[in-house]
Amino acid sequence: MFSFSGLTKEQVLRLREEFGVYAVASGRVNVAGMTPDNMAPLCEAIVAVL
Q1: Which of 36, 42, 48, 50 is 20 to 30 A removed from 17 (C-alpha atoms)?
Q2: Per-residue pLDDT tens for 1-50?
Q3: Distance, CA of 11 to CA of 3 (rounded, Å)
Q4: Quick one: signal sequence residues (predicted)?
Q5: What pTM did the predictor assign?
Q6: 21 vs 16: CA distance, rounded Å
Q7: Where are the domains of the chain?
């Protein structure tokens, strides 16, 4: 299950390179892979690239 994040290709690339967070180049994020343990680091990474 994916959700469109609205992130740009550049932001998705930064997530991958700087935080090891992988998303589709279009900005879609696999929400089925989110857990209580990885939610905070994911949100912090997204905020950092905005």
Answers
A1: 36
A2: 899 999 999 999 999 999 999 999 999 999 998 999 999 999 999 999 99
A3: 16
A4: none
A5: 0.87
A6: 5
A7: 2-49
3-class state of residue 23 by DSSP = coil
Instruction: Read off the tokens for 37.
Output: 């343990």
Query: Would you call 37 exposed, middle or buried from its count of C-beta atoms within 10 A (0-12, 13-18, 19+)?
Result: exposed
The DSSP symbol for 27 reads S
Of the CATH numbers 1.10.3720.10, 3.90.1150.10, 3.60.20.30, 2.40.40.10, which one belongs to the domain with range 2-49?
Answer: 3.90.1150.10
Residue 10's H or E segment, with its range, is: helix 9-14
Place of tokens 């905020």: 47
